[in-house]
């Protein structure tokens, strides 16, 4: 049905163009207007036939182009479409004003083709500017410098537009790694994150690409990220928005995240060390859950007593290895004799390595024995 409509449009357009411009073609062959070959009906029929044949050749390509445009438009937010339409109208109005000068010319190329090119160019630029800068236009037209707005229905005050605290960011933008990691779900459940989680569509596309990978490890990681996002949405723990904002002139996802954070005054939530450094260099706030995890680890000091389970032998002498709840390794001297047993130990020292923190400890009864021997000798 759609193909028939395209063919009909081509045929009608061809008939109109044939009736208008075929007389000029016949003049080139010195055929006067009003003859059997050169008249309105004949020219319209010839134009309709030619464009009908063209529709048979290019009809499928036109339909694919229409589908692509339709898909692109439906993926845009209503605000973007509104400003894009206004930009298109403004571009066409400016093009019409400029084209008045060319309409007065008697040359076909100048009075027809140049105005068409100007309208296409300015209309396109107006549409693109309106769609890509819709957020800025919306902020420009919105009311500013007001912290509260009187609610006419219930008389309550609500916070709008400008945050009360310069350090507050309403949008928490999630990157791909943070969804794959999964700990964001546990943090959200605790209630320590407020505001709205913002998930850009380009992050969803990257997750989907990873989930469809031929590599089984990547495929599992991608599906885990999608599962975490579905859990956050289904359990309604915190408001979640999907952002349609994209930056076609930027290819890297990390750079898109930074640009989006600047536009919406958001903070990026990540666990990527390198991205964390780049974000800070760009003067954008970042919430790194690895830094949060490190800050929440238990502070272990020499002389502190711990109760640990020795799970395996150490690499040197008679050492045994245990782990705290947060995964910190505890090397117990003479721990080899307490394998798979809980034992009270006393911390002797702690060092920081690239792999994390490592604690050295002695069994508590051995320190008591040493203290007892020292007192006995004295």
From TrEMBL:
Stated name of the protein: Membrane-associated protein
Keywords noted in UniProt: Membrane, Transmembrane, Transmembrane helix
TM annotation in the entry: 42-66, 78-102, 108-130
Domain PIN: 170-277
Pfam families per UniProt: PIN
InterPro entries documented for this protein: Nucleic_acid_metab_PIN/TRAM, PIN-like_dom_sf, PIN_dom
SUPFAM superfamilies in alphabetical order: PIN domain-like (SSF88723)
Species for this entry: Lentilactobacillus kosonis
UniProt entry tagged with the keyword Transmembrane: yes
């Amino acid at each position: 049905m759609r193909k028939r409509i395209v063919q009909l449009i081509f045929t009608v357009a061809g008939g109109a163009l044939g009736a208008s411009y075929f007389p000029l073609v016949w003049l080139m062959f010195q055929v006067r207007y009003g003859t059997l070959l050169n008249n309105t009906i004949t020219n319209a029929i010839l134009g309709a036939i030619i464009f009908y044949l063209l529709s048979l050749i290019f009809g499928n390509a036109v339909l694919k182009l229409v589908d692509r445009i339709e898909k692109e438009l439906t993926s845009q937010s209503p605000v973007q479409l509104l400003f894009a339409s206004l930009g298109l109208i403004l571009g066409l109005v400016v093009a019409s004003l400029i084209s008045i000068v060319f309409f007065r010319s008697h040359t076909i190329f100048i009075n027809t083709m140049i105005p068409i090119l100007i309208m296409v160019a300015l209309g396109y630029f107006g549409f693109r500017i309106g769609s890509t800068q819709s957020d800025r236009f919306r902020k420009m037209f919105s009311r500013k410098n007001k912290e509260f707005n009187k609610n006419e229905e219930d008389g309550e005050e609500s916070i709008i537009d400008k945050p009360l605290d310069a350090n507050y960011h309403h949008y928490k933008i999630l990157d791909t790694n943070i969804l794959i990691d999964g700990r964001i779900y546990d943090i959200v459940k605790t209630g320590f994150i407020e505001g709205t989680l913002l998930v850009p569509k380009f992050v969803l596309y990257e997750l989907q690409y990873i989930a469809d990978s031929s590599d089984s490890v990547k495929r599992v990681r991608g599906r885990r990220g999608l599962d975490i996002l579905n859990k956050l949405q289904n359990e309604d723990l915190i408001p979640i928005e999907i952002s349609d904002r994209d930056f076609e002139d930027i290819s890297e996802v990390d750079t898109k995240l930074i640009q989006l954070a600047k536009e919406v005054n958001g903070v990026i939530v990540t666990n990527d060390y390198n991205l964390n450094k780049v974000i800070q260099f760009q003067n954008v706030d970042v919430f790194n859950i690895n830094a949060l995890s490190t800050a929440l680890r238990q502070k272990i000091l020499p002389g502190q007593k711990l109760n640990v389970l020795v799970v395996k032998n150490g690499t040197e002498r008679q050492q045994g290895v245990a782990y705290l709840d947060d995964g910190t390794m505890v090397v117990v001297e003479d721990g080899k004799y307490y394998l798979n047993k809980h034992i009270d130990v006393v911390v002797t020292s702690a060092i920081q390595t690239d792999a994390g923190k490592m604690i050295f400890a002695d069994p508590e009864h051995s320190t008591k024995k040493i203290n007892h021997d020292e007192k006995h000798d004295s």
